[in-house]
Specification:
Blueprint: H1 2-10, H2 20-27, H3 42-62, H4 65-74, H5 84-95, E1 98-102, H6 108-116, E2 119-123, H7 140-147, H8 154-175, H9 180-203, E3 206-209, E4 212-215, H10 218-221, H11 224-232, E5 237-240, H12 243-246, E6 259-263, H13 266-282, H14 297-310
Parallel strand pairs: 1-2, 3-6, 5-6
Antiparallel strand pairs: 3-4
Helix pairs in contact: 3-11, 6-8, 8-9, 8-13, 8-14, 9-14
C-alpha cells in the first residue's frame, strides 16, 4: 500500500485532473471522503506556496478585515497544503463550521444541506502549478484560502446556515406540488434564484467599509487578477445589493465579472437570505429570468429527491 501511495504521488499526487485517488473514489460512488495527506506531491505543496504567497499583498489591500482576521485565526501554513483536521481544529470552536472533504461536484441540495449543518464541502485537489491563474472548477486553494477564512466570522457563518435552510424550504414547497412538470418548473426557478444569490454574494460579493469597498466573495479572494480588477477597474459595474436584480441576473464563469453587488454588512446578507426565503414561499422566485446558470440533472434530482422524502 505504501508503494502504491508513493507511486500515486509521483504520478501527480492530488493535482486537479490528475488524481488517481479521486478517480477511484468517484468510480466507487464515494462523495464524502478523507484527505489522504501523504499523497500530496512536492509539486502540490509548491503550487500552494506560490498561490498563497502572491495573494498576501492583494489580501492586505483589497480583502475585508474579517477575512484577514480569519486567515490569521486559521494559522494556515503558507508553504504547505493544509491538513483539514488542522483547519477544523481552529475553525470549529469559533463558529461550529468544519471543512468536509469531497471527491467532486456536490449536487446543490446536498451542498446547501451541508451548510445548514455547518459543514463546507471542500475539494482536496490543487491546481497544476503551470496553470495558477484560471481554474473552471474549485480546488483546495479556492475552498480553504478563499472560502473558509470567512467561516470564522460568526455573522457570516449564520448567513450561510440560513441559506442552507432555504434549500429545505424549497424542498418543502416542491413536496406540496402534485403535478410533476409544475414541480420541476418551480424548482428550476428557485434553484436559479438561489444559485445567482450565492454567486453575487458568497462568491463575488463586495462590501462597504470605512476605507472604501472591500472584497468578501471567495471567488475574488482566491483570484490574483480579479480581486484587484473588482475594486480598481472602471469596466466593472458596482451596484448596491438589490434582491430583485440579483435573482434575475445571469452570470458566466469563464471571464472576469462585469457586474458586482455591494452589501453593507454580514448582518445585511443574513437579512437578504430571510427575504429570499419569503419570496420563495410567496412564489416570487417561480418565474425568474432565463439564462445562466443552467440547471443540471444532478442538481434538479437532488431537490426532487429531498422533496419526496418530505412528502
Amino acid at each position: 500500500m505504501a508503494g502504491l501511495k508513493t507511486e500515486q504521488a509521483a504520478a501527480g499526487g492530488l493535482t486537479t485532473t490528475r488524481a488517481p485517488f479521486i478517480d477511484q473514489a468517484q468510480a466507487e460512488g464515494r462523495l464524502y471522503i478523507h484527505q489522504p495527506y501523504e499523497l500530496y506531491s512536492a509539486g502540490n505543496h509548491d503550487a500552494w506556496q506560490r498561490l498563497f504567497t502572491r495573494m498576501e499583498d492583494r489580501w492586505r489591500r483589497y480583502a475585508n478585515p474579517r477575512f484577514l482576521q480569519g486567515i490569521e485565526s486559521l494559522c494556515l501554513d503558507p508553504k504547505r497544503v493544509p491538513r483539514l483536521e488542522d483547519v477544523n481544529r481552529f475553525l470549529s470552536p469559533l463558529t461550529g463550521f468544519k471543512a468536509k472533504p469531497v471527491s467532486g461536484y456536490v449536487p446543490s441540495f446536498l451542498f446547501f444541506d451541508c451548510l445548514r449543518n455547518r459543514e463546507f464541502p471542500t475539494t482536496i485537489t490543487i491546481r497544476d502549478g503551470a496553470t495558477l491563474d484560471y481554474l473552471p472548477e474549485p480546488d483546495i486553494f479556492h475552498d480553504i484560502a478563499g472560502h473558509v477564512p470567512m467561516h470564522t466570522d460568526r455573522a457570516f457563518a449564520e448567513a450561510l446556515v440560513r441559506f442552507g435552510d432555504c434549500a429545505h424550504t424549497a424542498a418543502e414547497i416542491a413536496a406540496g406540488i402534485k403535478d410533476e412538470q409544475e414541480k420541476i418548473r418551480r424548482v428550476t426557478g428557485i434553484f436559479k434564484a438561489m444559485a445567482r444569490f450565492f454567486w453575487f454574494t458568497i462568491e463575488f460579493g463586495l462590501m462597504r467599509g470605512d476605507d472604501g469597498l472591500k472584497v468578501y466573495g471567495s471567488g475574488l479572494l482566491s483570484s490574483y487578477g480579479e480581486i484587484a480588477h473588482s475594486i480598481d477597474s472602471p469596466l466593472v459595474q458596482r451596484y448596491p445589493m438589490q434582491l430583485e436584480w440579483v435573482v434575475n441576473q445571469y452570470f458566466e464563469i469563464d471571464h472576469y465579472q462585469p457586474l458586482l453587488f455591494v452589501v453593507d454588512s454580514f448582518d445585511h446578507i443574513f437579512e437578504l437570505v430571510g427575504e429570499l426565503e419569503r419570496w420563495m414561499r410567496e412564489g416570487k422566485l417561480d418565474n425568474v429570468a432565463a439564462g445562466e446558470p443552467a440547471v443540471s440533472e444532478p442538481d434538479l434530482r437532488s431537490f426532487l429527491e429531498a422533496s419526496r422524502q418530505m412528502g
